[in-house]
Amino acid sequence: MFTGMLGNCTVSDAARAENWYARVFGRAPDARPMDGLIEWHLAPGFGLQVFTDPERAGHSTVVLEVADLDAQAERLLASGIEHQGPQPGGGARILQLQDPDGNRVVLASPLVGLSR
Questions:
Q1: pLDDT tens digit string along 51-103?
Q2: Which of 4, 41, 108, 112 sits CB 3.0–4.6 Å from 30 for a disulfide?
């Protein structure tokens, strides 16, 4: 039985990525399990790893569900994270972000009345 999930985004510059992801999550990373790897633990058994591997950088996509997409969009703009605002996508409302290497980070909020 699965009990958790750590998504992974591969980047070329650890310091630059840490700065960007810290602004996305609103806080510093929770762990540095090894050289070139930083982690944000977002809920029990759930988080995101950012791994430095310049040859593979920029080809990751993660989708993270949020409770209040509009509030997150405003907070991100205030922290300097540019985006095009929430839009419909895949049966939800989404906010598409792109880290400095081109990895996609998509924040999603289910449409009202949509059941899983």
A1: 999 999 999 999 999 999 999 999 999 999 999 999 998 888 999 999 999 99
A2: 41
Q: Is residue 64 within 8 Å of 105, Cβ to Cβ?
A: yes
CA distance 112 to 52: 38
CA distance 60 to 78: 25
H-only helix segments in 50-97: 69-78
Closest by CA to 93, choosing from 106, 105, 108, is 108
Rounded to two decimals, what is the model's pTM? 0.91
The tokens of 40 are what?
């944000």
